[in-house]
Write a structure and sequence with these properties.
The protein is an alpha/beta fold. The chain has 14 helices and twelve strands. Helix 1 packs antiparallel against helix 9 and helix 3 packs parallel to helix 4. Bound molecules: pyridoxal-5'-phosphate. Pyridoxal-5'-phosphate binds next to helix 3 and helix 4.
């Protein structure tokens, strides 16, 4: 369909194409120098003063699985995560044989993980907390860090949405890059994300021991890489852990480097579009805008623009009317506990999700991209106003 205003707008530049072409021409396609350069640049972008260890991988789902394995999560363990997330967040836990414990969102205007509910759902089997920085909005990391410390839990951040956004780490509001606050952070470079490599992801840690584990399990648990042997630095290898092949390739690393160079500017452009939305949506008080009155916690990286429709509105009618006006919308997310598979497996615990259940039928995501103009934002909000009449 030819949308007048698509949900997200992928604009590849000539530099992006040149970077991929150069990787192809280099005659080295698997994980190599471009991947290393991408990882180093990403680490510096996250934290120039103390760059974390970064490992580029095939996608964020793999990053999350690696994080769970590196954190030692396995059968019998429980990991607490929000139900309001993409299915991959829960699946990464299930791959290990561990149990997913779903927690509620904080409120109808803060759709991130509720720390009080996390605390209430801790048992002697709880091993990790997996907060999701939904829409690029930081979870309450100050409170989650306190809980993790008190109960000796690992925090793995799903930061698929917020690359180069900050969150506060303490009561003094010290900002730190999301994805570098917990023990391990996971990023997605899927096509609709703030920066993309097509499929791609990054797994990040500040802990040298976790870094060594992540390095090994990305590539079969092997002690040397094909690149090391090509360069004559090594002639054989041992396998010292049960690893996977979760590597990225040089074409995607090259695209990642090129995309990364525009991420700060694009995140700033997204922030401006969000402000235009807020101004336009203020004139539509029937629609609740989550995060509207939250202060920024440092750098921002808005990924999606979700709203809460009035109670009782038939959402699909609204979506159909917006489609007829040329506006693409989506739903982030249908919560995990409502899926057939996750609703039926005993490995997903789903009690006490009242706020998520209230939000679920009313969530709607409006288009957001760095190139959206103020007039286009006004057009979307006017189309939403019209679509709500009698819906
Ligand atoms: C919150 C969240 N977590 C994880 C993922 C998985 O990312 P990927 O598609 O890179 O595997 C996504 C992707 O859309 C996501 O939105």
């Amino acid at each position: 369909m030819n949308w007048r205003i698509p949900l997200s707008d992928l604009r590849l530049t000539q530099e992006d194409r040149d970077a991929v072409a150069a990787a192809l021409e280099s005659n080295w396609l698997t994980m190599g120098e471009r991947t290393q350069a991408f990882e180093q640049a990403f680490a510096r972008a996250l934290d120039p003063a103390e760059p974390p260890y970064c490992f580029a991988v095939g996608n964020c789902t793999l990053a999350l699985h690696m994080a769970m394995v590196a954190a030692g999560v396995g059968p019998g363990d429980e990991v607490i995560l929000p139900s309001l997330t993409f299915v991959a967040t829960a699946n990464a836990v299930l791959y290990t044989g561990a149990t997913v414990v779903l927690a509620d969102v904080a409120s109808d205007t803060d759709w991130t993980l509720c720390p009080q509910d996390v605390r209430a759902k801790i048992t002697p089997r709880t091993k990790a907390i997996l907060p999701v920085h939904y829409a690029g909005q930081p979870c309450d990391m100050v409170e989650l860090r306190k809980i993790a410390e008190e109960f000796k839990l690992v925090i793995v951040e799903d930061n698929a949405h917020g690359p180069l956004a900050d969150g506060w780490i303490d009561a003094a509001h010290t900002p730190r890059a999301l994805g570098t606050i917990g023990a391990i952070g996971c990023f997605s470079f899927f096509s609709n994300k703030n920066m993309t490599t097509g499929e791609g992801g990054m797994v990040v840690t500040r802990d040298p021991q976790l870094a060594e584990k992540l390095r090994l399990i990305r590539a079969h648990g092997m002690t040397t890489l094909t690149m090391d042997r090509h360069k004559g630095h090594a002639f054989s290898y041992d396998v010292v852990a049960l690893g996977f092949n979760y590597r990225i390739d040089e074409m995607r690393a090259a695209l990642g480097l090129s995309q990364l160079s525009r991420l700060v500017a694009n995140n700033a452009a997204r922030a401006a579009v969000v402000q235009h939305y807020y101004a336009a949506l203020d004139a539509l008080p029937a629609v609740t805008v989550p995060f509207r009155h939250r202060p920024a916690q440092g750098r921002t990286a808005a990924h999606i623009l979700p709203v809460l429709l009035p109670a009782g509105v038939h959402r699909q009618t609204v979506q159909e009317r917006l489609r007829d006006a040329g506006v693409q919308t989506s739903i982030h997310y249908r919560p995990i506990h409502t899926f057939t598979y996750h609703g039926n497996t005993p490995l997903v615990r789903k009690e006490g999700l009242e706020m998520t259940d209230i939000l679920t039928p009313r969530i709607l995501t409006l288009p957001l991209s760095p190139t959206l103009t103020p007039d286009e934002v006004v057009f979307v909000v006017q189309a939403l106003r019209n679509a709500l009449v009698g819906a």
